[in-house]
Amino acid sequence: MKLAELKTAEFVDLLASDAPAPGGGSAAALEGALGAALTAMVCSLTIGKKKYAEFEETAKAAQAKATDLKVRFVDVMDRDTEAFNVVSAAFGMPKETDEEKAARSAAIQKGLEGCTKTPFEMMELAAETLELTASILGKSNDSAASDLGVSALSLRAAIQGAWLNVLINIGSLKNKELAEDYRAKGEALLAKALPLADQIYDTVVKAM
Fold this sequence. Notes:
Layout: H1 8-16, H2 24-44, H3 56-91, H4 98-135, H5 145-170, H6 176-206
């Protein structure tokens, strides 16, 4: 089952159920997709308008990039759930003998690495989309400024939500070097992305 193929009501009902997946990771990816979609929409509302003719090419390039980012967010949303299912299957492996215990442990660790990779990818996508969104501030349709603000809020939620999923997984990784690498890179992304999200939001509010 592909989450992206579900209707909105079906997705939120599944999210609200006792099914362990989709969960916060998929929700974070969806937030990111919504943020990228809003940025693409603002570009679409700028393209072809005489008032913003000087920003036409900028808007077209940003629209294409935002659309691509939206697609990548949707893709990682499904891959995040698939990664969780791998871990769930690993926990269900037999553990009667030493060999079985070793195989189970190895499978769990491999699965956890996959469960860390997908939310970290979401963080990277969110940071990239925030930079794109910031680049069209003051160069896009003023009447859609509030949509850029909502985009920033959605992307902020996406990167912080994804970070929580990175943290909960690296805490169980036996490969401490890998865990610390993810922690350092994640904190670096947050240090750049969160102030940028706030800057976009504050700029939009002050312009109203």
